[in-house]
């Protein structure tokens, strides 16, 4: 084969290798974007649950102590939203002009809301009594639906994070740094077990 022939073969090989690397890098980027989309969905469901919990607390259906407990934790969960779900830096560096966000562990606050709501709702032997309350029925229904959607959203988010981590652990992706400077995404772990009455379909 002539020198021109070998040069053509080398050029084609370089094009094929470059195309393969571009495909891999694009896939990593798409997976990162999928994590960010699922994280935004998770954020929305956390906000919906905190809002429904606060509405339940102010409905008058709970006793004063229960109302204060639920309202306090729900407000803290809502106010911690600007801190983000996780602090892995995947969303990019914050703008210097952006307002400062609270330094809180979002998982701890959201888990505390789960435990508080479970304890309060467990104190009502028949949860349907709350559902029949004219001021609490809608809030309780929204809370149940938001909690269910939260479980699903967190599951999807963490599955997408695991998918990115598997992709980025491949030798080709890791060695050639096809993920660029993007930080490794982190899962969001919290206590999101719903009240027993909902789990058992009572």
Short description:
This protein is mainly α. It has helices spanning 3-57, 64-79, 106-122, 127-131, 137-168, 171-175, 196-199. Helices cover 66% and strands 0% of the residues.
- Gyration radius (Cα, Å) is 24 Å
Helix content: 55-70%
Shape: rod-shaped
Number of domains: 1
pLDDT below 50 for ≥5 consecutive residues: which ranges? none
DSSP summary, beta strand count: 0
Pattern of helices and strands = HHHHHHH
Largest sheet: none
Strand content: under 5%
Q: What is the structural class?
A: mainly alpha
Mean pLDDT reading: 85
* Span between termini: 79 Å
- The total count of helices amounts to 7
Keywords: Membrane, Transmembrane, Transmembrane helix
Protein name: LemA family protein
InterPro entries: LemA-like_dom_sf
Kindly describe this structure.
The chain has helices at 3-57, 64-79, 106-122, 127-131, 137-168, 171-175, 196-199. The chain is mostly helical. The protein has one domain (3-92, 101-199). Helix 1 runs antiparallel to helix 2. The mean pLDDT is 85. Keywords: Membrane, Transmembrane, Transmembrane helix. It comes from Georgenia faecalis. InterPro entries: LemA-like_dom_sf (IPR023353). This is LemA family protein.
